Amino acid sequence: MSRVALVTGASRGLGECIARRLHGAGYRVALADVRLEGVRRLAAELDASGASAVAIELDVRSKADFQHARDVLVEHWGGCDILVNNAGVSKVAALMDITPEEFDESMAINLRGTFVACQVFGAHFAERGFGRIVNIASLAGQNGGTATGAHYAAAKGGVATLTKVFARELAPQGVTVNSISPGPLDLPVVRETVAPERLEQILKMIPAGTLGDPGYIADTVLLLIADHAASVTGACWDINGGLFMR
Question: Is 244 part of a structural domain of the chain?
Answer without folding.
Answer: no
